[in-house]
Amino acid sequence: MISQAELHAAYGRTIRDVIAPNLDVLFCGINPGLYSGATGHHFARPGNRFWPALHAAGFTARRLDPSEKWLLLEARCGITNLVERATATAAEVSHAELRAGLQRLERKVRRFHPRIVAVVGIGAYRAAFDRPRAAIGLQKEKLAGALVWVLPNTSGLNANHRPADFARAFAQLRLAARTQRQAAGRDRAPQPAKPAS
């Protein structure tokens, strides 16, 4: 269990990306929450629906624990964030930070070439991409050659969606990713990125 002191100390911490070249899907969170900042694991707070939705949609053979994040690479998936610093809520992240995060994300996409970038959070997507009317699902524009997909925010604080809604949204993304991989004819497994020195 994470103590209040550990959560408080996690303000501003960053989490290492789970990323490799040529992934099917690069999931992009808004920013790490304090629980994630304290543990060093993406979508780590109990009650976050990210890991259950991945499994329900068939991305993973079993529900992974956030500490098993590196196993996502075997499923041709990775994780990054628009904003790197941990906060108590996404509401603490400014629109300027989200727009700057989009520029950082675009550089990562150019470097690693994922087929699809899946932004986890419609509000953050609308602000960062300046698309105030965007809806869940495939977007019209691409990001550095990658398709852009928007998923509902999986935070336990988001009461607008049920587990079945997340499973359905993630399953649609999985089908699109499989279709993209088959169309591209690239069936090689991605290789883990070497840590920057």
Explained architecture:
The chain has 197 residues and is α/β, with parallel strands linked by helices. It has a single domain, classed as Uracil-DNA Glycosylase, subunit E, CATH 3.40.470. Helix content is 34%, strand content 14%. The protein contains 6 helices and 5 strands; from the N terminus they run H-E-H-H-E-H-E-H-E-E-H. The protein has helices at 4-9, 34-39, 50-56, 95-112, 122-129, 163-184; strands at residues 25-29, 77-81, 116-120, 137-143, 146-151. Strands 2-1-3-5-4 form a 5-stranded mixed sheet. Strand 4 (137-143) and strand 5 form a beta hairpin. Helix 3 packs across helix 6 (163-184) and helix 4 (95-112) crosses helix 5. The radius of gyration is 16 Å and the shape is globular. It starts with a helix and ends in a 13-residue tail after the last helix. The model has no long low-confidence stretch (mean pLDDT 91).
Question: In terms of topology, how is this protein built?
Answer:
Blueprint: H1 4-9, E1 25-29, H2 34-39, H3 50-56, E2 77-81, H4 95-112, E3 116-120, H5 122-129, E4 137-143, E5 146-151, H6 163-184
Parallel strand pairs: 1-2, 1-3, 3-5
Antiparallel strand pairs: 4-5
Helix pairs in contact: 3-6, 4-5
